[in-house]
Amino acid sequence: xxxxxxxxxxxxxxxxxxxxxxxxxxxxxxxxxxxxxxxxxxxxxxxxxxxxxxxxxxxxxxxxxxxxxxxxxxxxxxxxxxxxxxxxxxxxxxxxxxxxxxxxxxxxxxxxxxxxxxxxxxxxxxxxxxxxxxxxxxxxxxxxxxxxxxxxxxxxxxxxxxxxxxxxxxxxxxxxxxxxxxxxxxxxxxxxxxxxxxxxxxxxx
Length: 205
Prior knowledge:
By secondary structure, the chain is an alpha+beta fold. The protein contains five helices and eight strands, in the order E-E-H-H-E-E-E-H-E-H-E-E-H. The protein has one domain (9-193): 3-Layer(aba) Sandwich (Aminopeptidase). Strands 1-2-3-4-5-6-8-7 form an eight-stranded mixed β-sheet, with helices on both faces. A hairpin with a 3-residue loop joins strand 1 (9-10) and strand 2. Helix 3 packs antiparallel against helix 5 (182-194). The model is unreliable at 199-205 (pLDDT under 50).
């Protein structure tokens, strides 16, 4: 049996389900909310390319290198984004949570935090991961702030790491949470989800 098997993760605000072509229509609408594919420092599918991107992720799942999810908003029952376990290292029990995007209307909400909590809990408490990684473009400041709010620590920056579709060179920021850090991070994320929206935070986030 493969180390990483398709699974449904259920939360109060969102549910993560195995990605399938049946989610394509919702995801096309979602990506149009904010025209997310136009962000130069990230790679988000166009409306026209959504079906191909779903097939690509499912193909990587078949090879054992990715486990893709559709993010379902419980209030509407519709897909509002994608996320994945990727760069799977079964022998070393490591995964990256990445290739994530959400429609603009749910960004910076409890939905993202709950999705990360569910993915991290499954990684550490079911898969027994020793570490979980997050990677993002140096210029994606919103993503970097979001990753840091989770409690992940910056491992380093891979300079000139990749060539982007527009020909620019990407510096990749690599973050991680280790198994030893998980209990504290779990409490922190649960607090973030439970606190009233707009509550004051002494860190000034």
